[in-house]
Amino acid sequence: MHVTRFFAAPPYDAPGHEHMRMVRLQGREAGPTDSLWMGVSIVEPNGGTTLGASHLEKIYVVLDGEISISNGQEQMTLSRWDSCRIAPFESRQLRNMSSRPACVLLAMPLHEPPAAATVKPP
Question: What pTM was estimated for this model as a whole?
């Protein structure tokens, strides 16, 4: 068993993330995992990410507040306990358009997917 206390979770930075405080709860520098890592982002009002895509799947769960999420074609507002899957190669942009901070859980694969899974569909 590996426990990470929130107050001791290691912070991390990521390109294209503005007005966000991000900590890793499990995996990578937060401790051992076999297949995924998990982090929490506190997104300040008007904070969020730029529109971008990667070859890794992402799962977001809003723990508190509201987040607007877009794939560049459609936009949805997620509230507490709502979740969203972003597929490999799907663009995503997170935005906190409210007047209070939002808290979001992120789960992502720890390892690169097999080579066949990294080929972008036509």
Answer: 0.87
